[in-house]
Amino acid sequence: TLARAIARRTPLHPVATGYRLVHGEGDGLPSLVVDRYDDVLVVQLLSAGLETQRAHIVDALQELLSPRGILARNDPAVRTREGLQRTVEVLAGEVPDTIEITEHGVRYLAALRTGQKTGAFLDQRDNRALIGALARGRALDCFSYHGSFALHLARHAEHVTAVDVSAAALERAGENAARNGYTNITPVVADAFEYLRQARTNGDRFDTIVVDPPAFAKNRASVEHAMRGYADINRIAMQLLAPGGLMFTASCSHHVHVPDFLEVLEYAAAESGRSIAIRQITLQPLDHPILLTVPETGYLKGALLEAMD
Ligand code: SAH
C-alpha cells in the first residue's frame, strides 16, 4: 500500500519537490501522514495502533525512498485523545530546521520543526499555480503565512500586498521573496478583516485577490460562527475587486462542506452588491486524495471568482 501511494505521486516529480506521499485513509493508510520535502520525510502517526508500527514504517520508508532524514511531527492535538504524547523527534538520519522546496518554478523554505502542519501548506500547490497564472495588476494575498500564494502572484502581477496577522510568518515571506528575486511584494502585518475594511474605506481596488483563511470551524459546533466568518471576509474581498478582477478563495475547514462553501459564496456575492461569476471550483490536489466513501479525507475546497462589473 505504501509503495502504491508513493508511485501515484510520480506525475508530481516535474512539478514540485514538496508534496504529500501518504494522505492517511485517502491512501488506504489510516492515521498516517507522510510528506516529502526534497530529500527529507516528515511523518505523523496519529493513532495508538499506528504508533506500535512505528519501527516498521520507518524501515519501509527507508527502503523505498532512502531519505536523508525522517522527522516525526507528532504534535497534533489528536495524539492526546489517543493517549499519546505530543512530540517532535528525528526518527532517522539528519533533519534540518528549514529546507527549500520548489513548486511550479517558485522556491520557498519549509520550516519542518516549527511550521504549520508538517512545515508548509502543500495542499494549495495547484491553486497557487491556477491564480498565479491569471494574476495581474494590483494583487492582494490575505492570510499569506510564508507568502506562498504571494510568490506565485508576484510573477505576473505588478505588485502584491501580503497580509498576515503573524509578523514572524511574514518575515519568512520576505525571505522567500528575496530567494526568488521578487521585489514587488509588500508584507503588511494586520488582521485581514481589518485590513480589508480599511482598504474599502480608502476606496482601494485590487485586480487579483487571494483569501486563504485558517480553518474557522475547528469542530462541528463552531460551523455557524465559521460560516459567518467566511461570508464576511469573502463579501469584503469581493467589494474590493476592480472591474473584471479575479479572486481565489478557499476553506480548509473539515466541517464546512462544498455545498456550504458555495452557499457562503452566494450569500457573500449577494451582500457585496457586485456581480460575481464562479469560474471554477477546486478540491484537493493529486497527493491529497479524497475517498468518496470516507468524507473525512476531504477538507479543502476553493473557488475562482471573477467580478463581472
Ligand atoms: N495561504 C497560506 C496558508 C495560510 S494559513 C499558504 O498557502 O501557505 C493561515 C494564516 O492565517 C496563518 O499564517 C495565520 O497567521 C493567519 N491568520 C490567522 N488569523 C488571521 C487574521 N485574522 N488576519 C490575518 N491573518 C490571520
3D structure, described in words:
It is a single chain. This protein is an alpha/beta fold and 309 residues long. 33% of the residues lie in helices and 29% in strands. It has ten helices and 14 strands. It has helices at 2-8, 48-51, 54-65, 78-81, 125-134, 148-154, 167-180, 192-202, 223-239, 258-272, and strands at 18-23, 32-37, 40-45, 69-74, 87-93, 98-103, 106-111, 138-142, 159-164, 185-189, 206-211, 241-251, 276-282, 301-307. Strands 10-9-8-11-12-14-13 form a seven-stranded mixed beta sheet, sandwiched between helices. A five-stranded mixed beta sheet has the order 1-2-3-4-5. Strands 6-7 form a two-stranded antiparallel sheet. A hairpin with an 8-residue loop joins strand 1 and strand 2. Helix 5 packs parallel to helix 6, helix 8 packs parallel to helix 9 and helix 9 (223-239) crosses helix 10. The longest helix has 17 residues, at 223-239. The N and C termini lie far apart (50 Å). 45% of the residues are buried. Bound molecules: S-adenosyl-L-homocysteine (SAH). S-adenosyl-L-homocysteine binds at residues 121, 124, 143-146, 148-149, 163-166, 169, 191-193, 212, 214.
